[in-house]
Amino acid sequence: MTMATTLASCLDKRQAQFDTVRHPYSLSSMATAHAAHIPGDRLAKTVLLEDEKGYVAAVIPSTHHLKLSEICEQTGRKLSLAHEDGVREVFRDCDLGAIPPVAMAYGTQTWLDDSLLAHSDVYFEAGDHQELVHMSTEQFMALMADARRGHFAHRMM
Q1: Looking at the domain assignment, is residue 157 inside a domain?
Q2: pLDDT value of position 54
Q3: Cα–Cα distances in Å, from 140 out to 17, 114, 124, 125?
Q4: Segment 4-26 mean pLDDT
Q5: pLDDT at residue 1, rounded to an integer
Q6: DSSP state letters, 24-69
Q7: Which range of residues forms the domain containing residue 141?
Q8: Residue 156 within any structural domain of the chain
Q9: Residue 131: phi, psi to the nearest 5?
Q10: Can you give the residue ranges of the YbaK/aminoacyl-tRNA synthetase-associated domain (predicted)?
Q11: What's this model's pTM, rounded to 2 decimal places?
């Protein structure tokens, strides 16, 4: 699989400057960081949440855990992890577990954890398990301009 069509369209529309990084097939964000030889705290992980109002995507560093209670407080919603069917429904052109952070391009409200912006560059899934998008944090912030920001992730011990 190549880059997800929706992601490619979003990057083009925003005139984003980026490159791609191929890596051996991996199924978890930490395994992806290891396979791609990149720092895990620079790899964005997207977690899809849901409630009766719909879906919310939370974007955090792969080295962090999502604090569900904190994002619920910040959003004012009673969110839980989305079921696999929901992930497939929202991110139709992506492999399960390889969803990009630009969930707003998929019609989904997106929240970005500020801890992801602490470095000079960011990597994220391109929609499959073998390719990452790499860009400067400045470009990433421009790409994610429609996302809401907060602090709802904590580094794993």
Answers
A1: no
A2: 96
A3: 9, 12, 10, 13
A4: 95
A5: 57
A6: ---SSHHHHHHHHT--GGGEEEEEEEEETTEEEEEEEETTEEE-HH
A7: 5-151
A8: no
A9: -145, 135
A10: 30-141
A11: 0.95
